[in-house]
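Troubleshooting log. The previous structure file for this entry was overwritten by mistake, so regenerating from the original sequence record. Sequence copied from the archived sheet and checked twice against the printout by T.R.
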Amino acid sequence: MRTVIFLLSLFSLTAQAVTLPELQQRFSQQPVLRADFSQQRKISGMNLPLNSGGTLLIAQKKGLWWQQEQPFALTLLLTENRMVQTMAGQPAQVVTVESNPQMFQFNALLSALFQADQQVLAHNFSLDFSDKGQGAWQLILTPKTAPLNRLFRTITLNGQKYLNLININDMQGDETHIRFFNQRTEPAALTDDEQAHFDG
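Regenerated output below.
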């Protein structure tokens, strides 16, 4: 679940976003988002942070494809009814809505984040949205429902035209920082290779 949480913010924004309802409208107009990411995890008791990086693809009505390339290959596919995690040399781990309904309740929350669905977000989090000027914005999510409020202190999203940074502070005192760059929304339709990620 921790890996899935890292994904909860992968959506694009326009520079003029000043309110959450405006964000919700603009998210729905982004059928496909591609980006690169770098992730740093600071774990209590460890002197050095853990660093990773790769690429991601979000397609409305299809799901999310997360390809970690460094320090080792790991692929995560998340759709409406299944989650598939694959590591090099190991069998794929598949979770379905039937085998883990709680996971897919959380999946519904991820979809709400991608769409900036204010009603769903407000049910699960206290929201602190602020316009930072010149198109920059920040959204601080403070969990108020279980199990999120037992896992995380805050999830902070920062961006401008796109989401650029996620900072996650958990209840164990660990921190995760995910930076997104090289965001692309064209072509607006999936390529054949991209479609194959979801059809496989």
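The chain has a mean pLDDT of 84. Archived copy saved in two places this time.
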